[in-house]
Amino acid sequence: MSQENHAPTSRSKPPPPGEEDAAKLKLGEFQDVDTLTLSEASLVINALIAKRRKDAKGRPINETDVLIKTLEYLDAFARFKQKENVEAVERLLSAHKELTKFERAQIGTMLPRLSFSVVFVSYTICRGASRLTRRSLGQVLSAVIVPTNARL
């Protein structure tokens, strides 16, 4: 038998559309996609489950292990549980057009009870992509943290 050179049997994976660079928040094909905070994701998933249960009229619905674990995760880490608080945070962050959608979602997700740690963590995430200074980021966060803490 002679050894023949055959063409490769698999194709290489095409690169994703768009440029990706996490350090500069270039997200490729996900660049301008709307993003959700964990609190928003929790509201959406819980509303969908409630609708499915209502439509099922007493019949069991398909709740997979992944869905159950996702709900447990969101319940543990979603900062805001009430719809009004989630909407208030979204309104406050959306008013700052200098933040990208991704930055707004990350800041909304990471809002801890103490503003110092959120300023540090958020500035670290946003420093390469946003035009915000540390001081202006602190002002944005103060506008969100103070009103939402009052309503928790």
Model description:
The protein is mainly alpha-helical. The protein has a single domain, classed as Up-down Bundle (Growth Hormone, Chain: A). It has 6 helices and 2 strands. A hairpin with a 4-residue loop joins strand 1 (20-21) and strand 2. 17% of the residues are buried.
Helix content: 55-70%
- CATH-defined fold name: Growth Hormone, Chain: A
Main CATH class: Mainly Alpha
CATH superfamily (homologous) name: RNA Polymerase II, Rpb4 subunit
- What can be said about the biggest beta sheet? 2 strands, antiparallel
Question: Outline of this structure?
Answer:
The chain is mainly alpha-helical.
Key phrases:
single chain, 152 residues, mainly alpha, Growth Hormone, Chain: A, two-stranded antiparallel ribbon, 6 helices, flat, disordered C terminus
